[in-house]
Amino acid sequence: MTDSKYFTTTKKGEIFELKAELNSDKKEKKKEAVKKVIASMTVGKDVSALFPDVVNCMQTDNLELKKLVYLYLMNYAKSQPDMAIMAVNTFVKDCEDPNPLIRALAVRTMGCIRVDKITEYLCEPLRKCLKDEDPYVRKTAAVCVAKLHDINAQLVEDQGFLDTLKDLISDSNPMVVANAVAALSEISESHPSSNLLDLNPQSINKLLTALNECTEWGQIFILDCLANYMPKDDREAQSICERVTPRLSHANSAVVLSAVKVLMKFMEMLSKDLDYYGTLLKKLAPPLVTLLSAEPELQYVALRNINLIVQKRPEILKHEMKVFFVKYNDPIYVKLEKLDIMIRLASQANIAQVLAELKEYATEVDVDFVRKAVRAIGRCAIKVEQSAERCVSTLLDLIQTKVNYVVQEAIVVIKDIFRKYPNKYESVIATLCENLDSLDEPEARAAMIWIVGEYAERIDNADELLESFLEGFHDESTQVQLQLLTAIVKLFLKKPTETQELVQQVLSLATQDSDNPDLRDRGYIYWRLLSTDPVAAKEVVLAEKPLISEETDLIEPTLLDELICYIGTLASVYHKPPSAFVEGSRGVVHKSLPPRTGSSESAESPEAAPSAGQAAEQPAVIPAQGDLLGDLLNLDLGPPVSGPPLAASSVQMGAVDLLGGGLDSLMGDESEGLRSDVGGSPAMGGGGGFAAPGPAVPAGVGAPLGSGLGDLFDLTGGVGTLSGSYVAPKSVWLPAMKAKGLEISGTFSRQVGSISMDLVLTNKALQVMSDFAIQFNRNSFGLAPAAPLQVHAPLAPNQSVEISLPLNTVGSVMKMDPLNNLQVAVKNNIDVFYFSTLYPLHILFVEDGKMERQMFLATWKDIPNENEAQFQLKDCSLSADAVSSKLQGSNIFTIAKRNVEGQDMLYQSLKLTNGIWVLAELRIQPSNPTLTLSLKCRAPEVSQHVFQAYDTILKN
Amino acid sequence: MIHSLFLINAAGDIFLEKHWKSAVSRSVCDYFFEAQERASEAENVPPVIATPHHCLLSVYRHKIFFVAVIQSEVPPLFVIEFLHRVVDTFQDYFGVCSEVMIKDNVVVVYEVLEEMLDNGFPLATESNILKELIKPPTILRTVVNTITGSTNVGDQLPTGQLSVVPWRRTGVKYTNNEAYFDVIEEIDAIIDKSGSTITAEIQGVIDACVKLTGMPDLTLSFMNPRLLDDVSFHPCVRFKRWESERILSFIPPDGNFRLLSYHVSAQNLVAIPVYVKHNISFRDSSSLGRFEITVGPKQTMGKTIEGVMVTSQMPKGVLNMSLTPSQGTHIFDPVTKLLSWDVGKINPQKLPSLKGSMNLQAGTSKPDENPTINLQFKIQQLAISGLKVNRLDMYGEKYKPFKGIKYMTKAGKFQVRT
């Protein structure tokens, strides 16, 4: 009765039996036999041996039998190409059949047989079918072109099928249009350059018409295709949006999401003042909310997309917080995504509700979910300042539950809250300390130790607490060991009298008994620091920490904009651009949001920010376990504190060694990290009153240690040192004939923080010159001579003198045109001469122009797009590293470097003497000597000059 | 587009595979099995799994994983929607969608799948079209086919395939012309400990069963269409008419279909028809806990609440429960710790309650988590949102059809925290 009978086997051997049945004269028996063969095939059994027998059954007028044989053929033709040829005649004949169903079936099946010899025979029937009178055949043939292209792309192009396919976009039948679009989209995915879907207002109009009439699947293809179109102005964008919005009410969620993509993209072009813009925003919320009542798998995809939408346009869903509340029987993958979005939507208005919910989740069963909920409370505290107090008290409540993993998570997040709001919630420390014993996870232990160390002065028994950890020092994870080392050093600096023993113990544990280089190095640094100059040690170790960022792991804006263009696709689920996962990334064209009309025309200008690799992409507030080193260093050493006095003091001590060099590199100086005399006998310390370690480190360790530190502390390393920025060759500023025989040539330079004007004065007159003086007119950056012009002896005829005139930037300011114009007056005993010169802007780039990565990200976002300028640096074939080191010499600092599809992106910052920050993104393609430079600055007028500075620096 | 489909049962066996392009080795499913192993329950297997060369998208329905393999960038929702359509089609063809049923009808399944996709592009997914192409198996037809040697594959081009109304076949004839509409609303709600509503929303649908001769053109209007501000329509509904006049105008598909679904969001006030009073307490240092719940009607607009069912997942520490219901039957499964109480109707004069004690594991501290109570119920002849159909008119045909409309309210995901 049922098909399961096809699976019964007989003793004689299944294949043998089937063969006999297939060759039977009785139609019915034949059909049953083919069914058995198909049944075996579906469960993965190999029935390819029956190929000739099955193909023999193909010549039949029974449609079902024909279809079954076709099914078989599609599966096995590849393994039996010679045999498959036998079927060709029947296919060609069927393509002429009066029944459109059979014509379509034949052309459809032929396309599925992936055998070269057959594809040759396919061309003629396919050509006919593409022009068939019956739309059903045409739409099937359209898909067949995509199949053929997959097998033999060249053939498709040679035969002109692509043009025929393009013509089908104007077909009268919407279904044919949809399939043609689908086929073309698939083909162009593997041929990104072919520009198959050449969209123009006319073709767009046709697509929009077909959109209303075709099937749901066709609508998806058409909408996805529309999303690639770039409307010429905001009016066109609006009219497309108007015609797409009805799709938001479609029952098929894929249609809805594709429509959302088109709207989100084209909205970029609409002015925010437009009434329509507001209407559109309002229309977007309900369909997104509706997606959340669908099946969990759909919800998941929807939530991943909503996560992007909320980051791009939080206003759409800001009132819909409640739909993201978690139901206890939601699958875990839905719960975690909802939680993420809840935090993104959290604001002062809804924080009370959110907190109540989070607290509820923290008592659920699923451990992963509970942990994430507790973290979420911490993130709320950091995000919504007004809620911090409530969050802390919620966390305290949770700690009272004594559920082990809840307590641990809570302590980890409280550490972050302390950092965000210093000196506010330290009263809870006592409660935290009560739970010290229950902490068994490294992250929680490390967090607790950090707290004890940081607030050692408020915790009476801090030394006892830390000592208790010290007992099992070697069993701890590196994270905890490092934290413990730092905490005890902090404690010592705060309470030096009673903790000497403890600090010596930990230093010797770290340096002598440990084989972890990070730990050992940090141990040595502290040791040397403490033994050399405890005051400096205090300044370094107890330095004020930078506040942590407010926003919680946002996706970097360039990536976000790209992902918005990919709403509804896999990329939007992975939160990665397609190039990161698509096979061979052959077909990847970067998509970008259209620019708002009226803003800069560069469509590709990225809106965004630096990152080194995926991990660093998100400025994580909650530090990931992985980057503990960077994080710890950050915690302890903080921002560059007053560097020079420290370095100076160590020089005075005559101990220009490990500490001097090492610290300089910590301070972000460009020194080359540790010198190689690490192993040498360290100097005896003065202030601390205890002995530095003996020559414990074998000399051989020195070099690797040094380079290790260099790596750890700074990416910049290497070049640059103290050479100062690029100095242009001198040029003549004032020719002799204009100044009664005085010729002045000169250039500007910047060295170790000071600017100077290097002048050569030549006397080409016949009389002696004396009484030189110089004065600057007011200028854009307040440049002024820092000292009078000193020409010691009178200048005899035909004599030259070289003078370096130090400059400062405290003079009076007046905006000049061009910006870097400097008007100078030089006086001598003969007359007063005036000339003007242009100074290169890079002499104004200051040494502390390196921005914190997070600051950079925030600033880049903050600066409006109109302020962005893009330039091309031609004929520069340097590698990214060479570029970066060259620029660093002139105080242009590389903050991050990232490789995107083979091109290097450098993110750089620089600061001008008057405090103006300039952020840059430099794109370097390996084979292309032209670099693309995008500059963002609050004072956009400097961009042009900064570009010139780049140009000069890189070309010399 | 969609490359292949694997059907996998709960035990992790692949019992059917179908490839629409070149064959993909079943070893690709190993990544799925890994994910399946990691997930605590089948429902928790993530729907999107990335592998080095492919992406696996899956849905879990009727204890079967439908795993689609894709190779290029394809909208995941498109794939998942398609998989749902496959499940619906199986259900439509065979009555139930189960492993046994699929194995029994493997050839039909294969034929159907072949018709649904061509080279990974959807071909025919409307059930009426599919049924014309490949007739569903019935006992009678199997017998007739065996005797006459005829086939269950249609050789006519389905009329719906290319018409402007692909959802309706031509030449429909009935002796009794009837059109029935069911307005069904489900309340999703979370109620907190104290009984106040945290969130509540209504998911409504209008399901139709239309058996009308010819090409009828229907209009359906509502008393209060303003309620419907978030709707998803069947493709047959003319959107423009709705936009301008708030009237549903459509040529219906033949037979059963979902005319529209709508959503009444959390921002509107949603009436909650039941309340649950609960007193569940675990005491430290005691191996006995108290359990007491009472269910009662709240805003029911005078209608009776029926089919009430209470389920709750008790904490692991609960060994057993000895409870007495005032009505209905209850079961506690000591292995899964699932308590279910089939209450039946609520009589407002005598509220149903379930009382008793819980045996807790001795010596352990009280459970961290509180059980959440899940509620199911039905109210006939009421759409809780207040939605009401005004009238149904038919144009284009001359006969007079029978018309009917039914309302029902049900609990969707209705949860009470304790």
Automatic annotation (TrEMBL), chain A:
GO molecular function, one term: clathrin binding
InterPro entries: AP_beta, AP_complex_bsu_1_2_4, ARM-like, ARM-type_fold, Armadillo, B-adaptin_app_sub_C, Clathrin/coatomer_adapt-like_N, Clathrin_a/b/g-adaptin_app_Ig
Membrane topology: Peripheral membrane protein
SMART domains: Alpha_adaptinC2 (SM00809), ARM (SM00185), B2-adapt-app_C (SM01020)
PANTHER family xref list: ADAPTOR COMPLEX SUBUNIT BETA FAMILY MEMBER
Family: Belongs to the adaptor complexes large subunit family.
Protein name: AP complex subunit beta
TrEMBL record, chain B:
Membrane topology type: Peripheral membrane protein
A GO biological process held by the record: intracellular protein transport
Record protein name field: AP3M2 protein
Localization (cell): Cytoplasmic vesicle membrane; Golgi apparatus
InterPro entries for this protein: Adaptor_comp_med_subunit (IPR050431), AP2_Mu_C_sf (IPR036168), AP_mu_sigma_su (IPR022775), Clathrin_mu (IPR001392), Clathrin_mu_CS (IPR018240), Longin-like_dom_sf (IPR011012), MHD (IPR028565)
GO CC terms of this entry: clathrin adaptor complex; cytoplasmic vesicle membrane; Golgi apparatus
SUPFAM superfamilies: Second domain of Mu2 adaptin subunit (ap50) of ap2 adaptor, SNARE-like
Keyword Transmembrane helix: no
Main localization category: membrane
Keyword set, alphabetical order: Cytoplasmic vesicle, Golgi apparatus, Membrane, Protein transport, Transport
Top-level taxon: Eukaryota
Domain MHD: start-end pairs: 176-417
UniProt cross-references to PROSITE patterns, sorted A to Z: CLAT_ADAPTOR_M_1, CLAT_ADAPTOR_M_2, MHD
Keyword Cell cycle: no
Pfam families, A to Z: Adap_comp_sub, Clat_adaptor_s
Similarity-based family: Belongs to the adaptor complexes medium subunit family.
